[in-house]
Amino acid sequence: MRASWGRSIDDLILAGAIGTVYGGAEPYTTAIDIAAGQTIAVDYASTPIAATTTNSGLTPLKLMALARVFETNDVMMSENTVNGSDPMKVHLAIGPAQKENLWYYVTAAPNAPWANMVGEFLTGKSRNLFGFECLVTNRLPSTGTVIRSCIAWSPMGVKIVPDKYRIEVDALPNKKHAIQLSAYTQFGVMRRFEKHVGVILCDESL
To answer: pTM of the predicted model, to two decimals?
Structure first.
């Protein structure tokens, strides 16, 4: 039950982070989506000279590009604080295929310092990945069947409406009075600040 509950919460957070929100002047019906500049393209290359139309999975260059987007928006990764105390970590959700991309990168090891940084994450020694607090999930949305959206957000960027929990314990007469445990919750998630959310598009067909 706990695992199922957690997956449902993951779905709401990820959907709320990149979904359409509504604001503007009253009656607040202006649709607001994440700006194109908050998304790292599936064929991203580090410089115009290296520009390519070849899709790629998750790469260190894509991670660095998204980190730059956040810091350009004054979201200084782990240096930020909440109420002047605890670090405000920027979370990044990736899928198993993106984790595999990073394993291939470490195996090839074109850059030893980067490979060491990625290796710390892959071996479980650190959850930090180029400044992001990284987690692996199977709940990420995809475009079609092969382009996966890896989603990053800061605690200030996503608003979780206060939740309500209820747990019920019942005896089932038709099941020889077996005990049934049920849990109910109600809450919502929405994006609060566009510049505190970002996306990396990754091709999983490679």
So the answer is: 0.80
